[in-house]
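Tutorial sheet, problem 5. The two components below are modelled jointly, 720 residues in total.
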Amino acid sequence: MSRVFNFSAGPAVLPEAVLERARDELLDWHGSGMSVMEMSHRGKDFTAIAAKAEADLRRLLDVPDHYRVLFVQGGASQQFAMVPLNLLPPGASADYLDTGTWSVKAIEEASRLGRAHVVASSQPTRYTTIPPRADWQLDPEAAYVHYTPNETIVGVEFLEVPEVGDKPLVADMSSTILSRPIDVSKFGLIYAGAQKNIGPAGLTLVIVREDLLGHARRDCPTMLDYTVFAQHDSMYNTPPTFGWYLAGLIFEWLLEQGGLPAMAERNARKAGKLYAYIDASGFYRNPVDPACRSWMNVPFRLADETLDKTFLAEAAAAGLTSLAGHRIVGGMRASLYNAMPEAGVDALISFMRDFVQRRG
Amino acid sequence: MSRVFNFSAGPAVLPEAVLERARDELLDWHGSGMSVMEMSHRGKDFTAIAAKAEADLRRLLDVPDHYRVLFVQGGASQQFAMVPLNLLPPGASADYLDTGTWSVKAIEEASRLGRAHVVASSQPTRYTTIPPRADWQLDPEAAYVHYTPNETIVGVEFLEVPEVGDKPLVADMSSTILSRPIDVSKFGLIYAGAQKNIGPAGLTLVIVREDLLGHARRDCPTMLDYTVFAQHDSMYNTPPTFGWYLAGLIFEWLLEQGGLPAMAERNARKAGKLYAYIDASGFYRNPVDPACRSWMNVPFRLADETLDKTFLAEAAAAGLTSLAGHRIVGGMRASLYNAMPEAGVDALISFMRDFVQRRG
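Model answer (structure tokens):
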């Protein structure tokens, strides 16, 4: 079978050129006689791979010098605990914005380790909006402000970085990082699980302002302490070397594509044409406020939901896979991460149009 | 360049047949049109891969039904914290045996989270022995007994499982798991970083007796709670899917090789011939008590240590790589994990013999 168009929300499609290179190097990286997976993480080959990945990421995101880039494990779910363990002193409170399922998980974990104050919630609109900044009840004593710039399940995304004064702004960018340029200097800490726009599952990226290091709780496990990662260049223990290498190949590929301005243009075009077709179709619908529709995750429903299974089966037969919506909301979802080619979106729209004609 | 013989202590050599299969499947797993890396962890393809890996591991180790197998992240270093967070109630004490650097790290981390009582230490012999069981000062109130069956740096290994009565025995098997049959029922909990005998770095295996679940501390981060992993079949969040898949390929390969009895025979022969040559050489030496020499990690020193760099350079030129000892002890170290073919050991001995004739 040839490659399909894979609309999975994550783990997600990777650039074919990157997979081909990984395949060609899998048994013998650059004449070393071994796979990257077999290399000591402390040897000169792997440390060069690791350093180049970080340098390319810094170039892509224009990361200021007073920010550290960390390569950790455990996914965003582990970050939900690491953020308060490192930034929330015992007895203090942090501000959290609730814009969906992932926000709620971050709030629940912070609440187990300290106090999480919800500044606003879009739950009353079933998370199809973003609470206006003017309505947020910020706590002047909060240690930081946490939000989720993109929520994968309902498909809402902040198009701008919210202004929160001098509080450290903490963002779970798992499903939006590298999809467009961002101003890193507006953030105290950014984290992102790799399995959408960075690389394979099992790697998590953290970008943290240096002044926020050194404040972990006394009983914080060593492997959850950002400072330990910063002091050891993310090699206190053996890092996920193959994931780090693949992330580096993705970063190189992104630079070759023209970097994040080029990706933003492509992503806006991809999402724009799909939303435009959905809105005009008279058969499909997306309930999200157009002011905060996600570029990365486009959920939609069929006018006749008894056709959902038929839609998914016929789409899969046409090489368009993983289009089922998250089990919490049902319906359909097309995730359009960086590695989804525009041809995939065109093929999806064409299939959707054809499906309406045959079944609508 | 062709493949080298890679004696790295970890990340380490993987079976060439496994790498070839991973390469061939990298862009299209079994006609799915996608890489395993691109699959949703909740889809039927990946859940089948995951379940088969666990089933094969259970077959290899003959894991009893009342033990759970967990696939986690963070390496053994994270287990150093997870073990006390899950098994050591606040205020209680656990027993630790000190047989080297990795034992010390486990003890230090447990001491940050509770009380760790050192029952015996081989530090006075520079960790070249194992303290006789009769000399261990076990605490009758200890929550569990922790030891390190194989220490990679000095190269000491327990040839038998110590008897500790009815206390849960906890073992860091990172560098010995799957090298020989073990009786899992003698343990409360076994953990192992993958990057020696299991697969690529970034995956950690935990085998835990069911009655030890459900006792995590109230403030234990969700992602450090064994019970959460057990309740969600290690998919509370996105697991390291590609590492899990590769581990499954390794388990299949081990079964094809004849399972752990066959590996034990091969590993005993590989290590045996290298130790025999070292002892007889009059030029190389290994300081470890022959009663506890590691099958997996064989450190040795040259009679003339000014030749160390020459030895390493000439070995690398001959396709024998990563033979430098750990930076703490210097000298040389040949790690002979399952994937190191006997031909690699033969080539090393032949090189060592030739080196003595030319330079000794």
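Marking note: The first strand of chain B starts at residue 5 and ends at 6. Full credit if you identified this.
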